[in-house]
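User: My instructor asked us to take a sequence, write out its structure as tokens, and then describe one feature of it. I'm not sure where to start. Here is the sequence I was given:
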Amino acid sequence: GGGEGGGEREGEGKKEQEEVAKDKDEAAVPEKLADDDVRKKPLLWRMFYRLFPFLERIEDRRRLRANDHEFNRQFKYSGNTVTSSKYNVITFLPLNLFEQFLRVANLYFLILLIIQLIPGISSVPFYATLVPLVGVLCTTAIKDLYDDTKRHVSDYRINNRPALVLRDNQSLELRWRHVMVGDILKLHKDEFVTADLLLLSSSEPNSLVFIETAELDGETNLKVRQPIAETAKLGEDLKELFQFDGYVECEPPNNRLNRFVGTLEWNGNSHGIDNENILLRGCRLRNTKWMYGLVIYAGHDTKLVQNSGRTKFKRTHLDHVMNRMVFFILGFLGACVAVCFLGGLIYEFTYGYLPAIRTFSHYTYNPFVIGLIQIFSNIVVLNTFVPISLYVSVEVIRLGLSLLINWDKKMYYEPNDVPAIARTTTLNEELGQIEYIFSDKTGTLTQNIMTFLKCSIRGTKYGEVLGASDQSDGPGATTRSENKPKLEHLQSQETAERINFKAWNSYADEDFVFYDSNLLEKCQTRDPDCDEFFRLLALCHTVLPSTEEGRLVYNAQSPDEAALVAAAKNFGFVFKERTPFSINLDILNMKQDTKYEVLNILDFNNERKRMSVIVKYDDKITLYCKGADTIVFARLNEESRDLMKVTLEHLADYAHEGLRTLVCAKKELTEQEYLQWAEELHEASITQENRDMAVDTVYNKIEQGLTLLGATAIEDKLQDGVPDTIANLAKANIKIWVLTGDKQETAINIGYSSKLLTEEMRVFIIDEDSPEGVVRQLHETAKEMEGKLNSKNTAVSNMEEDGGQEQEEEEMDETKLGPPFGIVLNGHSLVHALKEDVKLELLNTAKKCQAVICCRVTPLQKKRVVDLVKKNDKKVTLAIGDGANDVGMIKAAHIGVGISGQEGQQAVLASDYSFGQFRYLERLLLVHGRWSYHRMTIFLRYFFYKNFAFTFSQFIFAFFCGFSAQTLYDSTYIAVYNVIYTSLPVLALAIFDQDVDEDNCYRYPKLYIAGQQNKSFNSVIFIRSLVKGIYASVVFYFVLLGITWLNVFQSGYEWDYQSFGLAASGALTVIVNLQIAMDTYYWNPIIHVFIWCSILSWLAVLPITSAEGLFGLLGLFLYNGVFYEVVSTANFWFYVPLAAVIALFPVIMVRSFRLDFLPEFVDDVRLKMKKEGRKKFIPKKPKRFKRRATFRRSGYAFAHQEGFADLITSGKGFGMEEDVVLQGHRSRLSAMFSASNPSSPLASKKMLHLPPKQMTFDAPFPVGPGRTSLAVPGAARTKTTAEVHEEGAETAVL
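Assistant: Let's start with the prediction itself. The structure tokens for your sequence are:
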């Protein structure tokens, strides 16, 4: 379905026409989509459609007609409105309440409220539960509404972008949300594509369109799309466009970004359309003034949205733990209630004192009925085992922690005015438990900027700025670079003087930075080696030049290639113009351009890993070649062998610094040698079998015996601080997976430059195409890993370790980073590795690695990789990216982080947290994440402790009140215990406490591991907190019971039940607040005020609740004058300190024993902090590994697809008629062969006639016939063997 199928071919029989039409029709029918190719509906909708399948609309094929809304409306296609929000006006209340009642505690309190509404059961008024429950629900609902409102605002901005639509014979400026399937849109340069469009025409020659697909696949290099020839003729003719009524039939909406199958029927002809004719939503129009396109898919049917996933309700690991522990507490509550029920029955049958209870309409004296009713009464009394204030406090703490992130100036990126934003307030503590990070590369780790940084020319290194002595030959340069750390190099670069290229070169770029003046001086003095080097860079490429606002701009298929040509321009070798036959250079501001005749372009591809160009100038024919070092070095002549050794050392230095390298070489050809090779190329191009292999063999023949010129080193600029961030996160036992759409070599190169991969790491590559091959590679990899893991030499990681500190610190910071393994997977291999029967094998193998890189992956594959780890390894995951292609994995991970970069705001809008640079991730996790986890866990431990201390005392009191469900404390004290007396200290602690300061969080990343292993809050710690609370309640209850046994007031009365309860409340308040003071590591004025004022509040509030004037008001304040009677006795003031000492002394002793004999790593760090004081932490200089003499890693990283060679040599990129281009090739080749070899068939102009346009090959002769260029959209299909034979083999060369 990807071929161009217009018209019937003349001279063909009817049978052949029918066969071709049948083949084309079959190709146009899309194969059945797999489950993973279609975006799944939400679970509730899937259940609904299972019940009512007749209501589900299943689209098996898309059918539409241009400019015919009546026809298209019958299919009820999706509009172009896109929503990323969770709620709307109708669904907000029911859906939000449903989500909130998924929390066990909320459901528990709803049931408790219903029980309290039953007359005769509760001794506590129902509004004591109703008010806080409504408060919790409203607080959470308001927070969720606020978060979702921001999503609605962002959706509104996107859906209301302007779009120029041709509708009803007029050009209308509408909003994106008004665009419909079948509309024809007009886009201008730098605009985002509104929907998935079929390209009709454009302003460029042959209606080519240049697009950037960074939001789809992360690649910033330009791609080319081209319409079919028939619609390209429409141009900008509005009358023709208004009348265009093409009928499109294609595959239904799916998430496959790299495939499209369909047909266009127009003017009685049927034309095949494929992915090269389609512009997807999210692409950006570049270097094209305008274009027209037909909307195929809109809104949620677009491939970008199909790959984005759905917004999910995310809950933290602690939320799940809290739910399990609430279940445990409910079980404990049930046990206590059962004891009270049995005790009540025993008391009733023994003493018979229980009063009659009114049940609805009458009194009952039946012990069993009374006992059953008392069950509910005891549930109400003991409900504070699970206080509703727990969830109110959790929400307040999370909000506070989110604000601290928002207000953190150290995460503010000033150049772009981007602050850190916590877009959700429910996931903060999860940041302290991350074990896997899934990161995009382009725009996340890198800046999308390629920079020509260094080069090696004939054995001399250029680009160093450490002094003149650094420009030396031979291996000495390698030794020097190993001994001097990169930090010194950077410092010297800051003080070095930047070369002002603009002073002598009017073509120079303002932003081109280079410091080594030696290279410029040699260029200006016409050093022959430098001349040839930069001449190669200016000639050997497939760049297309253009002029924008008087400035020369290069359009390249690869950003590396654009950087090299730009470097040559800045050094005076300006590539100005090209035609299918020539290239014009302006060398060192010469008044007249130098014109080079282009004879052949041997384009780059994945197998060759090199490209060459053959040019003629001054009757000299020269082949220039650039490519991977391993490929070019194997083709050098003997004279270059010594130079190769020196260049190898330079390349090793460049690779060690993470630079991307290419090797440059040349070869002088005689005319006879070239013509003989051209004939061999002709013979290879017309062979009927294995044509590609034959052409490659001929290409390889001419590319032998090369003379080495040098090497280039390009920096794919990382964002600031990326290597240090990755290294520190790795020390925190966080595994980092890079998921990128880039090529394998590019991804590996960035892995080394970012320190994700190290030279000491054993890196495995999984790149098989077949399922069996992938499984075999995974088995072999796992087997080798097991062998190395069992070896003593690889027991610990060989990643860079900190040095330069005293031995004590090295011992404290000794962190095993995991095995020294890394895995690189290709996208085609990942397809098989993610299948059900293989994915666990992949996961088990990858878990043994510290770093994993997946390249050439689609957005859907990114999401599936995250799901694989999340669902099967049960670890906390984080995904970080900056483009729309990262939205799926950001939504799938436990935590999604968006970087506000150059690829739009889609990733930010879908994220939970966002900021401006990758390096802030270190602070987000190691500081904010670790503190948030520590604060939340200490809050939970204390909260369960204080509520068990409070509630268990009421359970003890049941044994002294005949199990009558009588409360020990005043109802007002019960109501405000978790509001006034104990809430503020724990809130202050949970928002401001720091067990270690931020400098030590960076200094000792190992501290982070405690969160990953749930050391701060788990089942054991939870039970320990409950036991502490029970012990405290037993202590203050029975100590008070002993003191008050014979105690009387001055008036002669004994301490009654109210006095006993009031005294107990005083001791309880003091004990729990002193306990939180003992748990505080970081004291500040707020914590001081909250703790001590909470204790004093008991002395301030109780006089009010005991005042005579309030007695009996609203059925409350029944403790008239009790406070003054209690505090006026010496026994009370003796009792409170005594109970506090007895309750807290064991805690102090256990803690002291643990610190002395069983200290944890954090205890050692705190001890070291106390010794050193809170002084500023100065990062240590990293220790450099000395590279092994036998190790050399290639720094090659280049585009893995053909460039614009086909556009150039065919004339398509210049708007030239094919007849004219062919005539030029014909005349040139015929003249050369006529003069040299008249008997050659290539000397005959008759043999070089032009075939019909619909029969043209993918590429003309100078590129290499029979080779399919990935960059050329709408290219004609490759001829069949029969067709070639029929037309004559000689024609095949064209």
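For the description part of your assignment, you could build on this observation: DSSP finds 45 helices and 35 strands in the chain. Try explaining in your own words what that tells you about the chain.
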